[in-house]
Amino acid sequence: MKFCSLYSGSSGNSIFIGNEHGKILVDAGLSGKYIEKALIDIEENPRDIAGIFITHEHTDHIKGVGVLSRKYNIPIFANELTWGKLESSLGKLKDENKVIIDKQKEIKDLLITRFDTPHDAVASSGFTVQSGNKKVAIVTDIGHFSSEIKNTIKDSDIVLIESNHDVEMVKFGPYPYMLKKRILSNVGHLSNDDCGRAILDIMDHKQKHIILGHLSNNNNYPDLAYETVKNILIDENVDVNKDIFLTLAKRDMPSNYIDI
Ligand SMILES: [Zn+2]
Ligand SMILES: [Zn+2]
Questions:
Q1: For 119, phi and psi rounded to 5 degrees?
Q2: 220 with 248: CB under 8 angstroms?
Q3: Which residue, 7, 51, 128, 171, shows the most beta carbons closer than 10 Å to its own?
Q4: How many Cα atoms sit within 13 Å of 142 on the Cβ side?
Q5: What is the number of the ligand closest to the CA of 120?
Q6: CA-to-CA dists, residue 123 to 82, 87, 118, 132, 147, angstroms
């Protein structure tokens, strides 16, 4: 199974997952052109994408979805409540490309499982994708790391998890009070510290690729996110080059192309 973060951050998110049989995207939150370019950069043909799975209706996750669906006739998968919010933002779509995902879908030999995430969208989701005995998990836009999420993702080989902000940078930064409150709430975004603790929670005997993603452009720095999480792990005797592989997803180009 191949995994690649095409783009990750508050400015737009899209993740490619696939194998020789089936290929999907989770979110397409930049323009269609940007997503096409990223796919071509990793030598994938946009025509081969068999589905776009939507985590939630915020623009940084859906911006290119309508364009890509129309141009390449790609089905879009979202839960029913999210569809209620998507209809007006995605433009005209073929009825057959509007697919409701409740819990699970199979695309070729990929098994995609949806789970609830705590975020201020109507019904936001995370996804795991399984093929054979390999499993990938996408967990971004979460206000806190719930036990449901933990149980769903803990046996994954690859986890892309949100390391959105540094709490002090949010508190003392320029955002208006209400926005700060939203980001720091239980249904906002996961801080670097909480991300580190979440990773500790899913440590087991299985060696994992852990990718830090969805970094805020205003309230974080890549080095700060990485060092904060790394230090939390090292303090608990985790070897970040052996027990897990810890990396960062890039904001504006494909990164973490992993073949497992
Ligand atoms: Zn969001
Ligand atoms: Zn987001």
A1: -155, 155
A2: no
A3: 7
A4: 25
A5: 1
A6: 6, 15, 8, 29, 18
Condensed to tens digits (0 to 9), the pLDDT of residues 2-12 reads 999 999 999 99
Res. 205: pLDDT tops 90: no
Compute the distance from residue 236 Cα to the ligand 1 centre, in Å.
30
Best CA proximity match to 213, nearest among 159, 147, 144 = 159
Q: How far apart are the first and last CA of the chain?
A: 5
Q: What is the pLDDT of residue 210?
A: 97
Which ligand gives the minimal distance to the CA of 143? 1
C-alpha of residue 235 to centroid of ligand 1, in Å: 31
Collect all residues with Cβ–Cβ distance below 8 Å to 104 and sequence separation of at least 6.
111, 112, 113, 114
Q: What is the Å distance from ligand 2's center to 205 Cα?
A: 31
Computed over every residue of the chain, the mean pLDDT equals 97
What domains sit in the chain, N to C, each tagged with a CATH number? 2-259 (3.60.15.10)
